[in-house]
């Protein structure tokens, strides 16, 4: 005799006086397809409710041919938990849209205790999901290349053209946004504008610099770019730029904001205020620093949601979907830029 516990479909079949295959068809939504009488369906559902039957989610998903799971993996050391973290809005958009699309989320992580990221191991595990979303400034190219050779649908949040059409992505249009920030400064009357960025060859950094240079060129102004990790960005160096006629400085927003934060520290030491002594604009929206920054807003929440929608379409086999999408970034006039004095 079977021990008491979770009821099975066979138990429902005995109570309802029908066969177990009939119960399976009704509980899995296939009753209409084979013309099972409404009275029989009612008896089965009443028996299931009476016994407290709960479908096995694994068996249900296997029967449907998929897990109804979306994977999420970030190439940074940990998933962001602080609301001020630049990646947090991405996660909000991903979570909200996953619920709309009827998917659960499965976060894949690798130990960062030793400072090493065994991406190859994790990227193999992401195939447990129906498809996977990826976050992070730097992709491990060999591992991603191997993953793209499989049939797993994936979407990268950010622009990345190294893999051509093989890697679908949802990115932000940093080139247009950067040019818009430069135009805003030029319209305020600035002609000597300096761009300070980190020595990083991430696609986002390349696009931001391209936007700055394109905007300066369109305004007929010479483009000067300084690369620094912030260590050499001192008050004396800032004073030298100011004495040479620089009236506006543009910084780069990154996940560390190293150059941006160093510039703010140098300005405090030099006694400079924005925009009284210098105008400041940022290509992005740093999570730390001066409030009311002039720059542009990255639509992170919308990007996360759009990435889920694209991934759901790829999982469904949609061949007509646009695999590379860039979302516009809105100009933020802010309070740190004004006409030069």
Automatic annotation (TrEMBL):
Per its UniProt record, what Pfam families does this chain match?
A: LacI, Peripla_BP_3
Supply one GO molecular-function term. Answer: transcription cis-regulatory region binding
What are the entry keywords?
Answer: DNA-binding, Repressor, Transcription, Transcription regulation
Q: Which residues form the HTH lacI-type domain?
A: 7-64
| Entry-linked InterPro entries | HTH_LacI, LacI/GalR-like_sensor, Lambda_DNA-bd_dom_sf, Peripla_BP_I
User: Where would one find coiled-coil regions in this protein?
Assistant: none
Is this entry keyworded Protein biosynthesis?
no
Q: Which CDD domains does the annotation name?
A: HTH_LacI (cd01392), PBP1_LacI_sugar_binding-like (cd06267)
Q: Which domain of life is it from?
A: Bacteria
Q: Which PANTHER family match?
A: HTH-TYPE TRANSCRIPTIONAL REPRESSOR PURR-RELATED, LACI-RELATED TRANSCRIPTIONAL REPRESSOR
User: Under what name is this protein listed?
Assistant: DNA-binding LacI/PurR family transcriptional regulator
What organism, scientifically named, is this protein from?
A: Nonomuraea endophytica
